[in-house]
Amino acid sequence: MKILWFTNTPSLYKKNEKGYNGGGWIESLENIITKENDIELAVGFFHADTNFKKKKGKTTYYPIPLYNTIVKKLKRYFFYNNDKNEVNYYLKVINDFKPDIIHVFGSEQSFGLLSLYTKIPVVIHVQGILNPYLNAYYAPGSNMLDLIKQNLFKPLKIFNLIRGMSIFKFNAQREAIILKNCKYYMGRTEWDKNVTSLYAPESRYFYCSEVLRDSFYDAKAWQQKKRTKLILVSTISKTSYKGFDLIIKTAKILQELNKTDFEWNVFGIKEYNEWEAKLGIKCSNVNVFLKGVADSSTLVKNIQESDIFIHPSYIDNSPNSLCEAQVIGIPVISTNVGGITSLIKNEETGLLIPANDPYTLAARIIEIKNNKLKAIKIGDNARSKAKLRHDKEIILNDLLDAYKQIKNAKITNKNI
């Protein structure tokens, strides 16, 4: 069976080119699927290389060099609606590889428009979904005007902020078209299943979890530490809806109301001056330390050395950072948003709190700190469930089964 992926990353095309926090799950998936003799895989992705295609190992790679010069980049910067040119290039790739199935990772790029231009079945592997994210884009109490005020004498920064939101809205509008016209979906939470069914009631949905990075599969299980100082850890990106404000608000409460001796290490962010200015809370004054992007081995080590993993987002589908923490077995506290309830059963495999509730989050942190048996139980339960959920063999079987059903047009829904 010939499968053509369209992805937001080069996957294993150039192993030294790493994405956010040191890698991604798509390359992990490629590692296991290329071991199947019955699968011939190709991967298309935006890249500066001008080779139309290049075979490496068992995979055929199609770099898409539409924006590999300064002139092209500038044109894209000012005129970001390039869907027609992009789709035409995708069709060249399709005509060359002649796949049985086109597998699109994510709905935020123009790749998903292919379902309108080819009779080859297209399946979208849901990652985040832009329209619900747009609904929760700004954290409570914040908006674009805040960002403009904070950068009042930085016209280029203001222009980029406005442009960025304009692009996000444009992509969300295009995504609505994609979701309404796609017949097949893969996903991993009840939330993404529900959202896709709203857009495309007649579509077919397949459950398929994510392969994590090898460092997390190989990691030793978390063990409780004997110390008085509490170490908290989070991994988020610098986006308003990821909940950085909740971190520093909660840290201030812990410091002022509970007098807890703690430190909170945040990976993925180097600085977030905008939120510090808006809330009047300096990270350094509330024991929050911004560590920037880290590779997987660094993350594993820091999670193992911490006491609680906190996920503060206002919207999410199934964040890999949370799943990775669960695989290690550290107790996790998360906001109850999006697809999180497919990952955490409250009081059993983690603790759920309302979004934008720093007081409840602070109380739950203290609860886990003081109840060591509960911390161990929640961490152990989560590790068992997560290792099964992210078992490579199960994921591979789910993926191959979906491919076979799509190819044979004998589709059956699979409940999560």
Short description:
By secondary structure, the chain is α/β, with parallel strands linked by helices. It has 15 helices and 14 strands.
Topology:
Layout (H helix, E strand, L loop, with lengths): L1 E5 L18 H9 L6 E7 L7 E3 L2 E6 L5 H9 L4 H15 L3 E5 L16 E4 L4 H6 L8 H7 L4 H27 L2 E4 L2 H10 L4 E4 L6 H4 L12 E6 L8 H15 L3 E6 L5 H7 L8 E5 L3 H9 L3 E4 L8 H9 L3 E4 L15 E3 L4 H13 L1 H18 L2 H17 L8
Parallel strand pairs: 1-2, 1-5, 2-4, 5-6, 6-7, 7-8, 9-10, 9-12, 10-11, 12-13, 13-14
Antiparallel strand pairs: 3-4
Helix pairs in contact: 9-13, 12-14
Report on the structure:
The protein is of the alpha/beta class and 416 residues long. The strands form 2 sheets. Strands 3-4-2-1-5-6-7-8 form an 8-stranded mixed β-sheet, sandwiched between helices. The chain has 15 helices and 14 strands. The chain is globular, with a radius of gyration of 22 Å.
What structural class do you assign from the helix and strand content? Answer: alpha/beta
Spans where pLDDT lies below 50 across 5 or more residues: 18-23, 410-416
Major sheet attributes: 8 strands, mixed
The H/E string reads EHEEEHHEEHHHEHEHEHEHEHEHEEHHH
| Beta-strand residue fraction | 15-25%
Record the strand order, biggest sheet: 3-4-2-1-5-6-7-8
The end-to-end span amounts to: 26 Å
Number of helical runs? 15
Strand runs, count: 14
The value of Rg in angstroms is 22 Å
